[in-house]
Amino acid sequence: MCKIKTVLKYLLLALELGFLEGSRFRCDYMSTNVGWFKYHEVPLNFHDAYLQCKYEGAMLASPSTAEIKSVMMELMCYASAFSFSISILTGIHSTFAKGQFHSIDGIPLAQIYHEWAPFEPDNKNNAESCIASNYKGKLSDVSCDEPRPFICHKKHINIDPNDCGTTDPDYRYDKRTNKCYKLHNKPKRFAPAFFTCSAEGGHLAIINSEEELKVIHELHALYPPNKIAGHYDKNSAFLGFYYEEDVADWTTIHGETLEEAGFAKFQEGQPSNSTTGEYCGAVYRDSFFNDVSCHKRFAFICEKSPHYPEICDSENLERQANYTRICKHNFEDKGKSSPGKTNNPVY
């Protein structure tokens, strides 16, 4: 019997190692035996942190197991060295129904072993629907609107990144420009469109030549109006340029004039500022540039280098991190036998 258990143990270990060997993801993430992790030091609110992780191909991390919690606490060590008051947003929230806390991937808080910080949870002003963790792993309920650092987590999967260095199949590599492009057919305003492209590892597309305009037109043609969601102008898409009032000129998001970027042709009669406040740049699906309102929703086009972010193999990065380890946490999964046990009741 013992021999059978030993054989099964090593068989499972071999399968796990083989699985990890095929796992590849962004090099700005740390690889562990429970997935890939990245600590974001720039605070965001819950909604934006959720989106940042999602657009990176991951999810907002929750301390749903002892192993994941240990990694999250290790990643907090560096930040905690400078301020032990730092807490991070987790993916545990009750934004769908007050008091009903679940992780982003649907695990109820009652099934996650957890300990509350002193005097928590208190649901202050009936406005605390998100959960934060301090450097000791103790939880507090907090406002979802209050920005905090956060951690993204991606499970190991056997899906290789494509030619664009991403697992997102909507990014297409074009050898004429040596760039990758994606048209987002769910319209957004200019600022959220900028955020989305940046989080995906790229930026709102900047057209540098007639040849690149042709590439953009071909991409746009793959999304006729009936493939673009909502009741919006479906013949234009945001690009990475805007009208900079201080210099009274159209400028790319990288600080160049359109002429310096290499392409500056507007559709005849444009820019017109026809509805007043048309200070963001777009391209017609079969023509040149147009000025549109930054506050209206349009489809938008992202561009990224096929070499950024760099892609790494999990076995080359496992347990490696781009921070100095200052403390170490090892948590036992005390909740396996009684997952709902806590040191304070959930309100």
UniProtKB/TrEMBL annotation:
The record's section on PANTHER family has:
C-TYPE LECTIN DOMAIN-CONTAINING PROTEIN, LITHOSTATHINE
InterPro entries named among the record's database cross-references: C-type_lectin-like, C-type_lectin-like/link_sf, C-type_lectin_CS, Ca-Dep_Lectins_ImmuneDev, CTDL_fold
Q: What are the record keywords, sorted?
A: Disulfide bond, Signal
Top-level taxon: Eukaryota
Task: Using the record's annotation, list all stretches that form the C-type lectin domain.
Answer: 37-153, 176-303
Record's Pfam families?
Answer: Lectin_C
Annotated signal sequence range? 1-22
Q: Record keywords: Disulfide bond included?
A: yes
Give the taxonomic lineage as stored in the record: Eukaryota, Metazoa, Ecdysozoa, Arthropoda, Hexapoda
The protein here is known as C-type lectin domain-containing protein
